[in-house]
Amino acid sequence: MIAVSKTFPAEAIRAAHDAGLRHFGENRIQEFESKHAQVRGFVDSIWHFIGHLQSNKVQRAVHLFDRIDSVDSIGLAEKIDAAAMAGDKKLPVLIEVRLGPEATKSGVSEADLPALAEAIRKLRCLELRGLLTIPPYAEDPEQARPYFRKLRELRDGVGKQLGLALPVASMGMSHDFEVAIEEGATEIRVGTALFGERRKIAKQ
């Protein structure tokens, strides 16, 4: 379980850590920088960047986070690899796949996924661990099931293509994680169900 702590204060992260959670997800560089000094003592925690990563913030993200879960282009992967190499860091990553019709959502298309996976495999400082998707929102969690099933199938297919074990299928959030688990999720991203309703913050 990745506790999606974005927009919540360090005190909430501390409470979640005390309760036994060790994986935390953030999606805004500047916001996490403001909390980092208060939580960096949790040396047993894993910090995931889960949002769309802008190229001009790659270096800061690589410095702050243990994993980047939203790689969606070869160009971005190459920039992350260069920053990781400069920081003498081996960085696990996930490819975010856009399976829904929303043009505004991040993620590589299904058609472009094999080329991106192959490109990441050739980079020295990135370790491809699997795939992530966020299906179109629906009140009925069952409507997300085909997207979750598709991601698992794509993960298995890419792993076979590369000859790699890709253990991670990251899918499912507070309202649909049960369905995601039934379809093979190995990581779920839960925010509201843990921390309550999210407060709005200004864009960064």
- Report the sheet-strand fraction: 15-25%
How many individual β-strands? 8
**General form:** globular
* Assembly status: single chain
What this model shows, in words?
Helices cover 38% and strands 17% of the residues. Strands 7-6-5-4-3-2-1-8 form an eight-stranded parallel β-sheet. The two termini are 26 Å apart. The chain contains eight helices and eight strands; from the N terminus they run E-H-E-H-E-H-E-H-E-H-E-H-E-H-E-H. Helix 3 (58-64) packs across helix 4 (74-86). It has helices at residues 10-18, 29-39, 58-64, 74-86, 113-121, 145-162, 177-182, 192-195, and strands spanning 2-4, 23-26, 46-49, 67-71, 91-96, 126-132, 168-170, 189-190. The protein has one domain (2-195): TIM Barrel (Alpha-Beta Barrel). It is α/β, with parallel strands linked by helices and 204 residues long. It is globular, with a radius of gyration of 16 Å.
Brief characterization of the structure:
The chain has helices at 10-18, 29-39, 58-64, 74-86, 113-121, 145-162, 177-182, 192-195; strands at residues 2-4, 23-26, 46-49, 67-71, 91-96, 126-132, 168-170, 189-190. By secondary structure, the protein is of the alpha/beta class. Helix 3 (58-64) crosses helix 4.
Can you give keywords for this protein?
single chain, 204 residues, alpha/beta, TIM Barrel, 8-stranded parallel sheet, 8 strands, globular
Strand and helix layout:
Blueprint: E1 2-4, H1 10-18, E2 23-26, H2 29-39, E3 46-49, H3 58-64, E4 67-71, H4 74-86, E5 91-96, H5 113-121, E6 126-132, H6 145-162, E7 168-170, H7 177-182, E8 189-190, H8 192-195
Parallel strand pairs: 1-2, 1-8, 2-3, 3-4, 4-5, 5-6, 6-7
Helix pairs in contact: 3-4
